[in-house]
Protein 1
Amino acid sequence: MRRDTPLAYGFVTRVFHWTMACLIGWQFMVASGWRVFGDSAVMKTVSLLGPSHRAAGALLLALVVPRAMWAFRNRCQRPVDHGVPGTSARIVHVMIYLLLFIVPGLALARTYANGKGFDLWGLRLVPGAGHRIEWLTGMADLLHAPLAWGFAVLVTGHVVMAVVHTAVLRDGLLRRMIGTPQG
Ligand code: HEM
Ligand code: HEM
């Protein structure tokens, strides 16, 4: 089933969800590695195992646009939970979407504003401004990391709730996102 239904998320939503979850996991693994190991040989080896932080971030920004459009198109036929837990989950999902635009968007805007631009796999993805735009680089320097760590807290809460639903409440919620509807 390609589209979502009230019982489960469809194939397209699931592919978006798990592909982006892996990329986000990678982003935070690399960012945590910077914190612990700095720019050492360990991180140089780790960086060979996956895309660069910039490339994965740009890919996430490119994926969140069709994902948000797909979610909007399926909004009336997705699984819905009522009451406070359902509303809280929806608020967290909307915040996740917003941060998936803002966090990489700010970082890419910085590559424009610092005049360097950004090439990905030989393609000029973001041109350089030609001169430094202080307010924009300043804003990205100030906000990219704290917003990204805030995003990490939100995603951790989301994952913890998925585990609680599965292991404690045993209501089959996770099955909606792995492709076997509740029976
Ligand atoms: C959803 C996508 C992204 C996530 C989750 C993310 C996450 C993070 C995190 C957590 C840090 C802080 C590391 C620390 O505290 O030491 C960071 C730093 C950084 N990120 Fe990203 N990032 C994303 C996208 C991007 C993109 C697209 C670029 C570049 C085009 C980028 C460039 C940087 C740079 C240069 C730093 C170090 C300077 C700073 O802290 O602002 N990031 N990122
Ligand atoms: C790591 C980054 C993750 C992000 C950014 C994320 C984001 C989202 C979003 C936005 C939704 C709403 C549906 C949609 O629009 O796609 C969702 C649903 C869901 N996610 Fe995640 N997710 C992540 C990881 C995980 C993990 C690791 C699990 C399981 C352990 C998980 C379990 C679920 C479940 C069960 C739902 C359906 C919830 C419901 O029907 O109310 N997610 N996720």
Protein 2
Amino acid sequence: MKTIPIHPSHPSVPAPVDTQGSAYGRAAATSEALITGVGPGTPCGEYLRRYWQPVGVSSEVSTRPARVRILGEDLVLFRDKKGRAGLLYERCMHRGTSLFFGKVEEEGVRCCYHGWLFSVEGHCLNQPCEPEGGKSRVNARQPWYPVEERYGIVFAYMGPPDRRPVLPRYDVLEELNEGEFIEVDGTGYGGYAAPVADPHVPFHWLQNWENIVDPYHVQVLHSTFSGVQFAEGFKVMPKVEFEQVENGVIYRAYRRLDDGREMTRINAAMLPNISAIPSLDLEPTRGRMIGWHLAVDDTTMRVFFAAARTEPGRFAGVRMHNGKLWTEATPQERQDFPGDFEAQASQGRVNLHSDEHLATSDRGIGLLRRMMRQQIQKVADGGDPAGVAFNEEDALVRVRSGNFHLAPVEASA
Ligand code: FES
Ligand SMILES: [Fe+2]
């Protein structure tokens, strides 16, 4: 019988089998349903519906009806010929034809099928196929949501009518200096960093919002792993403090920059889905940009930003390390030099929370999720969630974010 030669490095006795950590037989991974469901009647969906949500950029809302999907609901957004914005349930209350195919008139939108005319508040003003234009049309009401416009954005309130809060104001957008204006972005992912032109970004909104209180990834993803995507100064690993405040979570990230300056950067995540990110060039200034990280549905999101500017076009200004926009990058470049979109989209359409191993650096995310769970419970118990105001005086939000030339002990919000 022929013996099979054994290579000298081949162990004559098999190594003990490592039975730990095998991918085989692992439990099916799950998402935390309490904080991820956004549809009507879900605990988180009801909580999110207690705040005003952005639904469109004012300058884009026109007499051509647009389909919008918000919190899992399909709606139609339009502006009547008197200039009033309206947000209606998409399916016509008569027999279900989409109002997307409706025609906008002076007083509202007219359904294409049998011509019922609805005002921006859903009142049925005309039923041309019915005797006398619809004798009982006053009893007909197309489901509608109230909207208000501010900072160039249309906001909707989709919660219980008797709990409707005042639309908030943000101090950094209220106090404009000479020559400043508010620039708006509603392209979906902040206008620069997504390889998709569709404003509907294909992953869960929390993956994007949690990024606001994740200061360490700025050093890794944006500064060393993928080259410098923002400012050189972000290469310094920061010392970070997280703090839960009355309306969310902030971090203070302290760095001593190569040029000797001391810098504390403060980011704010405000309930329920709002961000204040300071300028990415690390110049010392308050953050003048507010973001709304909108849940389109359980697996899709889009972001709206409003920022105080002196020059237009800044939303298109952030590029990959090699000067390309993400829309121009090849698949290989995106793999070799990933940015926020790649990191967040690859967490899945909805992150699998049971797979996570949250560590010290994730304290901000832990605080944010804990606050969400508390507020969801508060709403379920019949209360009002943190950060809503029912009179104008209380509706002004003080925004803490900014880049400050301060050591960490001096950096107070
Ligand atoms: S389905 Fe809209 S008017 Fe008939
Ligand atoms: Fe980032």
